[in-house]
């Protein structure tokens, strides 16, 4: 299964959601999972996980002509969580339109080698990102609850439809939905004519702590955010919802020591 995360603009938290989604899918499913950083220039996926990869996505696509698909694992780096990462290169001009065909071949090869391929497609609908989206069974469009993001979100929805992506493959993730003064979910859905699939709270401190430690947010003992990230991962992987942590109280319970 290939899943792509696409931001409506820079700074929406796309990489944060993609990295934690990949880590949670690996942790919850126990299945082989690879994270692909499709951003131009030095993307942040490896940095978020505290990794120093020897090879990159550009190395992989430049060697596709002679590399057996089963050899692709030599280009990835493994995180302590078991998640594999194919990091972005250092070239600010690549991947480019000329690399789109090779990226399609790469994603097909990865999809045959891994159970889950999670793509950080960046925040621009350039040919490499469009190629990833067309290959994906689910596309998570990441937006913040503000007017510029929502304007771009509407435009992206319209454009994505023109490249042959069915509406049911699109999932909208409203990130930082708990910030004060933002538009409500109901307002956004009414304006877009599209349901919000998932929403996550604003918790910069927790995200920064995870990035600085090179770990997934799920490893931190903080409320709400790990549970919200996990819910997205469970939905993508087709796993049952997390059991409620609320303790059931017997019907004959009375306050105090007397029962």
Describe this structure in words.
- The protein has 259 residues and is α/β, with parallel strands linked by helices.
- The protein contains 9 helices and 8 strands.
- Strands 3-4-2-5-1-6-7-8 form an 8-stranded mixed sheet, with helices on both faces.
- Helix 1 crosses helix 9 and helix 4 packs parallel to helix 5.
- The N and C termini lie far apart (52 Å).
- The relative contact order is 0.18.
- The C terminus is likely disordered.
List the helices and strands and how they pair.
Blueprint: E1 2-7, H1 14-29, E2 33-37, H2 45-48, H3 57-62, E3 77-78, E4 84-86, H4 100-113, E5 116-120, H5 127-135, E6 138-143, H6 147-162, E7 170-174, H7 185-192, E8 198-199, H8 204-213, H9 225-237
Parallel strand pairs: 1-5, 1-6, 2-4, 2-5, 6-7, 7-8
Antiparallel strand pairs: 3-4
Helix pairs in contact: 1-9, 4-5
Structural class: alpha/beta
Unreliably modeled segments: 245-259
* Strand numbers in spatial order across the main sheet: 3-4-2-5-1-6-7-8
The CATH superfamily appears as P-loop containing nucleotide triphosphate hydrolases
Cα(first) to Cα(last) distance is 52 Å
**Beta strand count:** 8
The number of helical runs is 9
N-to-C series of helices and strands: EHEHHEEHEHEHEHEHH
> Beta-sheet strand percentage?
5-15%
Overall average residue pLDDT: 89
CATH topology label: Rossmann fold
CATH architecture: 3-Layer(aba) Sandwich
